[in-house]
Amino acid sequence: MAGDQVTLLDLWASPFGMRVRIALAEKAVKYEYSEQDLWNKGALLLQMNPVHKKIPVLVHDGKPICESLIIVQYIDEVWKDKAPLLPSDPYERAQSRFWADFVDKKVNYFFVNKYKGFIFCVFYYCLVLSHDLIPHRNLISLNFTSPVQLA
Q: What pLDDT score was predicted for residue 82?
């Protein structure tokens, strides 16, 4: 959409922010990237996400959208002139959403509790970019057809 002002408040190592950055790239949306310091949160982050005070936050024409899956759905709906991020078949969409939820739970566990982000972030990034694991290049989720493909 011409004339859109899009800013992403994010941290380079955030796997949740990576999901949003990949969706923006897939839809060819031009945006300004604003690196956030999570230990010293800035006024813009606190203003745009006063409830959770965390990244990522997409600011589109001055309006904030929070939470990575919600942001990716928003991107898919607003910039619908590009290829959709989810399959058109309802069953395949449900499978994509299932795996997105699965990965979110695993990412959150490892990111917060185990490795404090770095190791799992690299692993997650490699998974997202792997064409073998994502047959439909589904960038919202890992679109596996069965858990056996995880090995």
A: 87
